[in-house]
Write a structure and sequence with these properties.
Blueprint lengths: L2 H12 L3 H20 L4 E3 L3 E8 L2 E4 L6 E4 L2 E8 L1 H7 L1
Antiparallel strand pairs: 1-2, 2-5, 3-4
């Protein structure tokens, strides 16, 4: 399902315009991004939790040359599905 298809479904289910549904979805996504950037978790009960995963700096190896390289520490977004969501997908 694409974003456009999701917006269309939201508009139909909520009986609102596509523009309003697109604005609502965009606002939700931006809200999640801002919360994660601040270091907070976002929990949607029955759906799941968005959080930040911290990766430590480490040594790696270039597969072409075999040379050792340094990989910087980084942060990555992570999603953990909630129990109700997992059960609905089974």
């Amino acid at each position: 399902m694409t974003k456009a298809e999701l917006v269309e479904k939201m508009a139909k289910d909520a009986d609102i315009s596509k523009a309003a549904a697109d604005k609502a979805l965009g606002s939700m996504i931006e809200g999640i991004k801002k919360a994660l950037k601040k270091g907070n978790k976002v929990t949607l009960v029955g759906f799941g939790t968005f959080s930040i995963s911290h990766r430590k700096a480490r040594q790696g190896r270039n597969p072409q040359t075999g040379a050792t390289i340094k990989i910087k520490a980084s942060k990555a977004p992570k999603f953990s599905a909630g129990k109700a969501f997992k059960d609905a997908v089974k």
